[in-house]
């Protein structure tokens, strides 16, 4: 296919998906005005919007890859570097908070208020405005744009910016020196982060000890590295026919909190959910950094406490404690939801899967392996920028702590090796997000 034909194909696809999005939004807006939208319809509309957005971004990325040249590639780097520096500068002097939400302000007055040079402020505003961050509605005045205003209403966005500028970028730039000095070391104190900050303390320890850094790291994971939020994962899992299970038992294995089980319980109240907390595995990508996890409290039954009883609000959620590698004590569940530890080895995962061979063979249940923190198979996503976000995250983990993420292809290869004399584990379905990332695998035991 020549470049013009390829470009036309991507252009036609982009036009079609934009038209579809506009048509759907008009229907939604009409329903909103009439007040006829139910919660289920609102969720469906949001899912359709997210799907359209993913398709639009994929088409734009494809068009850029066709028409882009080396000069464009380098100029984009230069712009992004200066925009990052400008956003950090704005955050450092708390400039954004001094701009009214609904009106413009003379740039000179803003500079005087904050105590910074007007000449520098003008240059920063005019650069960031080129990417939709702040506006100069008339010369010499500044106002918030839709984008910049969100950095005031959601302060975690600024936390993510500060982490990128002050830690992620310096650590990334020290990667050559770290390789020269430490080679392929897996020691958490022999990383590019240690060189960038000239410290012997590991990043993991620093996050635990400093609340500001922990907050920024959590914001960075939430917004900047392509990890899916709990709501997206619940939406994907909800596509399964849970209602057909009646009051069957569902076990969530390797969880760090009861947040996901609580959400499933609200959607499917007949299910009996057992959450098996694993506090022995620790990773910088643990879900308690990423999600605002619920605290184990009075609304949850903790089976480690004798005489406890289910709460009236979530009567079918039970909490137990089980470390990876321990024998599975619940052998009659219809579904086992498995969290793959972010820093686990192939040997550890195979041992865990081996433990379920007999369980699934006897019970006929299925296994849902959550794969949100695995790297997608190379070239399988329609939008290469989605894969780029995942692989940037993986390199970031190397630079900060010498940790790594497992490839999806590696996990699939491990699953193929799990079997006994009567049968084996087989993948029956891939549950994907709107951008094509596999969020979970459904697995069952299949007799020979």
Task: Give a description of the structure.
- An eight-stranded mixed beta sheet has the order 5-6-4-3-7-8-10-9, with helices on both faces. Strands 1-2 form a two-stranded antiparallel sheet.
- It is built from 18 helices and ten strands.
- The model is unreliable at 291-312 (pLDDT under 50).
- It folds into four domains: 3-68; 72-153, Winged helix-like DNA-binding domain superfamily/Winged helix DNA-binding domain (Arc Repressor Mutant, subunit A); 156-223, no CATH class; 230-380 and 405-447, Rossmann fold (3-Layer(aba) Sandwich).
- By secondary structure, it is an alpha/beta fold.
- The longest helix is centred in the first third of the chain and has 32 residues, at 3-34.
Instruction: Tell me the span between the first and last alpha carbons.
Output: 44 Å
CATH topology (level 3) name of the largest domain = Rossmann fold
Strand residues, percent: 5-15%
Quantity of strands, as a count: 10
Order of helices and strands: HHHEHHEHHHHHHHEHEHEEEHHEHHEE
Structural class: alpha/beta
Helix content: 40-55%
CATH class of the largest domain: Alpha Beta
Second CATH tier, the architecture of the largest domain? 3-Layer(aba) Sandwich
Q: What's the domain count?
A: 4
- Helix count equals 18
Major sheet size, sense and barrel closure: 8 strands, mixed
Radius of gyration: 25 Å
Low-confidence stretches: 291-312
For the largest sheet, list the strands in their spatial order. 5-6-4-3-7-8-10-9
What is the CATH H-level superfamily of the largest domain? Vaccinia Virus protein VP39
Shape: globular
């Amino acid at each position: 296919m020549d470049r013009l034909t390829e470009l036309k194909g991507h252009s036609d696809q982009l036009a079609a998906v934009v038209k579809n999005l506009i048509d759907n939004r008009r229907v939604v807006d009409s329903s909103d005005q009439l007040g006829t939208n139910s919660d289920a319809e609102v969720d469906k509309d949001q899912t359709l919007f997210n799907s359209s957005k993913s398709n639009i971004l994929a088409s734009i990325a494809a068009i850029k890859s066709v028409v882009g040249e080396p000069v464009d590639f380098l100029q984009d780097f230069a712009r992004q570097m200066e925009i990052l520096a400008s956003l950090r500068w704005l955050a450092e002097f708390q400039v954004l908070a001094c701009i009214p939400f609904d009106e413009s302000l003379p740039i000179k007055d803003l500079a005087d208020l904050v105590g910074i040079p007007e000449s520098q402020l003008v240059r920063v505003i005019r650069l960031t405005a080129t990417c939709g961050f702040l506006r100069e509605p008339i010369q010499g005045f500044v106002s918030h744009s839709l984008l910049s205003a969100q950095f005031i209403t959601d302060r975690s966005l600024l936390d993510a910016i500060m982490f990128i500028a002050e830690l992620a970028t310096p650590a990334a730039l020290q990667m050559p020196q770290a390789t020269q000095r430490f080679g392929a070391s897996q020691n958490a104190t022999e990383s590019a982060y240690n060189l960038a900050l000239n410290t012997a303390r590991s990043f993991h320890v620093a996050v635990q000890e400093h609340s500001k850094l922990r907050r920024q790291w959590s914001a960075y994971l939430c917004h900047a590295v392509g990890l899916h939020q709990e709501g997206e994962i619940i939406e994907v899992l909800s596509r399964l026919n849970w209602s057909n299970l009646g009051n069957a038992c569902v076990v969530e294995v390797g969880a760090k909190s009861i947040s996901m089980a609580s959400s499933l319980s609200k959607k499917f109240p007949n299910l009996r959910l057992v959450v098996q907390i694993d506090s022995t595995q620790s990773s910088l990508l643990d879900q308690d950094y990423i999600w605002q996890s619920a605290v184990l409290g009075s609304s949850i039954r903790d089976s480690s406490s004798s005489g406890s009883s289910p709460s009236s609000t979530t009567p079918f959620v039970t909490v137990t404690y089980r470390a990876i590698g321990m024998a599975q004590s619940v052998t009659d569940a219809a579904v086992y939801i498995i969290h793959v530890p972010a820093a686990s080895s192939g040997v550890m995962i195979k041992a865990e899967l081996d433990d379920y061979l007999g369980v699934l063979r006897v019970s006929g249940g299925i296994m849902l392996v959550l794969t949100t923190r695995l790297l997608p198979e190379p070239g399988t996503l329609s939008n290469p920028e989605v894969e780029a976000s995942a692989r940037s995250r993986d390199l970031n983990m190397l630079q900060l702590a010498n940790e790594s993420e497992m490839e999806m292809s590696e996990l699939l290869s491990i699953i193929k090796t799990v079997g006994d004399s009567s049968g084996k584990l087989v993948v029956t379905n891939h549950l994907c997000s709107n951008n094509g990332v596999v969020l979970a695998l459904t697995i069952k035991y299949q007799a020979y």
